[in-house]
Structure formats: structure tokens, C-alpha cells
Specification:
Number of strands: 2
CATH superfamily of one domain: Microtubule-binding protein MIP-T3
Number of helices: 8
Strand content: under 5%
Strand order of the largest sheet: 1-2
Structural class: mainly alpha
CATH class of one domain: Mainly Alpha
Radius of gyration: 41 Å
Oligomer: single chain
Distance between the termini: 106 Å
Shape: elongated
Helix content: 55-70%
Largest sheet: 2 strands, antiparallel
CATH architecture of one domain: Orthogonal Bundle
Length: about 290
Amino acid sequence: MSDELYWETTLRMFGALFDKPRMTEALLTKPPFRFLMDIFAQTTRTTSYAKGLYSEEELSSSFYDSKEKKVIFLRKMKLLTEAMLREEIQVDPRKTVTGLEPEKTNFFLQAVYRAATCGEDSARFVKKVHEKLAGKRREKSPEQAVENQQVERPAEGRGIVIPRRERTVRIEPSQHQGSANKDDIETIQKLVQDLTQNVNPIRSSIDWIPNDIESMNKEMKLWRNNFMDSKAQYEDEQVKTEELLQAFLNKINELEELKNHQKSNIQTVKSNILQNEQRIQQLLLANVAK
């Protein structure tokens, strides 16, 4: 099987597992998201692999109205498969969603097949994936909004004003050489911790921006190349069609000339026949007169 192309291996694996969705070169060399959904769903129905990984809502194609939802869908399957196989899968769900890196997407599908057919129950791994994702959501859930956690630097003779949700905490300056007391320090420490918890999710979101831009640029380049290839193919076909059409027109002209020539020959023969008949008639009349 070493001579197989990457997509042929995927076709062979899942082709032995189910008939639909039908595996084709066109779909496997640029797998659309709905196609991947159908593969995962049919794999679950056939082998029970990843059963319970997705909610009923997540199993409906109408649920995926944004790129982020599609990325989360693929990331869940990736986490489960990595846990089942005890290996890392080199695939970026964000690039998979945009149709980039089809080879890595196929290797991902092949890993799913191996995990689904390894004979091990995936139930406990599904539970671990849910726990891991729930933990990440709790880490990213801010306790307070950033805009409600502002610190004003005190002017001389004024305290530190710290708005906290619906109440305001005022820390008056200490009378002992202007140093903050223990409560002041603890309050400021708590404030800094809250601010850090809110900044981290924002920083994580910002970290994704270069990847998104890179993916969009690659996708735009891919579509531009597809357009240019299609345009070149169209122009080639147009030239071939015009050449073929011209050949037919030339043949028609040749046949038309041949037809006219034959008509001319026929007219000449008719004229000769008529002249011969007249000559014969004259000879007969001459003989009768004698």
C-alpha cells in the first residue's frame, strides 16, 4: 500500500466501513465540512466510536452557522482521537474548516478510523474530553467585566477608588507615612488577579488573529489560483472549439464547392446529350429526304 496516494488510503479505510457518504477523490482532496460531519456520524453509527461526544444540537448541520462552531466540532473529535490513540495528530481544525492542508485532514480521518476500529470503548475518553472542555470554559469565564475593574491613581489627599460590580470600594491613604495597610494591599492584589483573569482570554483571542489572517490569505490565494487555472482551461477549450469549428466550416465549404462542380458537370452532360439528340435528329431527317 506504500504507492497509495494520501486520499486513496482514506478511501480504502472508510470504504470498507460503510457505503455512504461515498468517498471520492474530489471530496477527499478538498473535504468540505459537511462531508466530514457525515463521515464522523456514520462512523459513530457503525462502530459506536465517539458516541455521546456531540449533543443533538451539534449533530444538526443547521447548527453550524459560524466558523468557530465548526472549529470546535473538529477539535472535539481531534481531542478524543488523540486520547484514544495516545498520540498527537498534526492537524489544525481552523485550516481544515477553510479547506487548507487536505493531506493533514486525510491523516486526521485515518486516525479517526484507527481509533474507531481499535476495539477499545471510547466512552471514558468522551467523558474526559467533556471534562477538559468544561475546565477550559471555566478558566475563560471572567468573574467581572474589565470595564468595571478600573483603578484610579490617587491625587494628594485622595483615596484609591475601585469600582467593583455595583459597589465602590474606597481605600483611604494611610496616616502612617502614606503607606498602604494590609487590607489595602490585599484589595489591590485581588484587583490585579481579577484583571489578569479578564486579560488572559482577550490575549488568547488576539493570539488567534495571525492564524486567521494566514488562513484567509492562503484560502484567497488558493481560490485565485483555482480561478486562474479555470480561466486558462476555458481559454484552451475555447481555442480548441474554434479550431474544430473552423475545420468543420472548411469541410462544408469544400463540399459546397464539390457540389457546385458536380452540378456544372451535370449541366454540361445534359447539354451534350441535347446536342447529340439534335444531331441524330438532323441525320435521320437527311436520310429520309434522300
